[in-house]
Amino acid sequence: MDIRFFTAADATELASLFEEMQAYYGVFCPSHDAIVAGLLGRPPETQILVVATDRIVAFAAFAAIYPGPGLKPGFFLKELYVSNSERGRDIGTMLMCRLAALAVERGFGRIDWTAARANERLLRFYDGLGGDRKEDRIFYRLEGERLKALATRA
User: What is the pTM assigned to this prediction?
Assistant: First the structure.
């Protein structure tokens, strides 16, 4: 099993895993070609770790953020996904360990992420990593027409 940074050569294969993820969440999925284009054209500040066996079976998408507690940088983990066929093999734990090692190597003070309250299995996974639930925070999202409406106020 190889944990490494995403490269352009991985785009088609990772796009297939993105399609699986969207189906798992039951949400809209763009075309395969649009996913590949998104991966190749993503903002340069974002990074993706992939886990490969004979194929890509998991990924973690994240970006550096600043400032945080003590005015130190950290990572925001946007998405961690392990293929359904590979769950229960500690792949998610290995990805989080690698991300933690990157944070420490870079002198970052934290990793932040969100998790769906209704996904008890996911919450147990993150609790088991030692993450503290920050119940004093509320996650907001501004998108679609409301995003455009706010932009017109600029």
Answer: 0.91
